[in-house]
User: Fold this.
Amino acid sequence: MKIVTIIGARPQFIKAAAVSRVIREKHTEILVHTGQHYDTNMSEVFFEELDIPRPDINLAVGSGTHAKQTAEMMIGIEEVLIKEEPDYLMVYGDTNSTLAGAITAAKLHIPIIHIEAGLRSFNMEMPEEQNRILTDRISTFLMCPTDTAVENLKAEGIQRGVHNIGDVMCDAVLYYAKLLENYASEYYFSHLKAWNGETVEVQEKWYLATIHRAENTQTIETVREILDALEGLEFPTLFPVHPRTKGIVKDVMREKAYQNIICIEPMGYLDMLYFVKHAQKVVTDSGGLQKETYILDTPCVTVREQTEWVETLVGGHNILAHPTKEDIYNKLKNTIIDKEAKQNYYGNGDAAKQICEMLEKNYA
Ligand code: UD1
Assistant:
């Protein structure tokens, strides 16, 4: 069996790490990095530390408008698919790299495996929602992480090729969380890089925040509200800043000095797991982080109007907040979590194995 896998953005490197490990035991995989994420600490560091194979091909597409970025990826992916003639094309999640891979393969009649199929935010203005819906529509194998995802597809009339195999991100968290204890806490602290070059002083307790979604990072007012909420907390917040967010955060911080927020460069995956696991709470708009906090038992406030990961909301483990100072602060401070309500909605860490077995059965 020969599979071409398309990756391009940070969370996809992590998911591919879990799946590639299993696929490559018996099959041929050609890993194509679109180059959507290209900064060293957004890309290279993941290949170094997760023990995933290096991409066989890097299309080095980089940033651009949605159309330009997606179109350039498609041109590069088409060349690879024509040359390699794979049995399947595998894509992850909802990024522009996902959509570019899927459309290109569909035109060449190469069956598409969509991992993380069926998720919906029901907000068609999000580029991710557009990417998901379009990719699901043309996929042959729709590998869903949850029952909710299966139901979402059913409501759209898609039932063929739909399988709930659990979440590959859960595979990754469970696998890598075991490695966390290999190092003492100093190891993780020594990796923290302040973006102003100063040494990072963190006390024993911290919050952790990540914000990068287009809807939260487009106006100074929204970013200010979020930062103001964090500034009022009783412990400092570690804030690894996505390149998308950097410019606007600097603008807000030029107007006012924030004493309680520590801006740092994006972290590697193991470091992130460590700082999430030991955080008081996490504030985020990332999909992956909502689940990581859930699996690692750290309470989370998600700065979004809706989430695709609705299971994390049960029992208050994760709570949605409007992007206002008051709402974020109140939800961080006044939340009681029902720990008994926790279930392993995201599987047992064997999603990659199930994907591989299903493909083998189909291929035979
Ligand atoms: C993308 C995904 C998003 C996912 C996120 C994970 C889409 C539409 N969005 O968002 O779903 O949650 O990845 O991190 O595909 N930039 C750099 N260096 C980099 C990467 C980006 O400087 O290595 C800057 C560029 O200015 C770029 C901006 O960040 O224009 C946004 O990057 P882009 O890849 O378009 O989307 P993300 O916001 O990273």
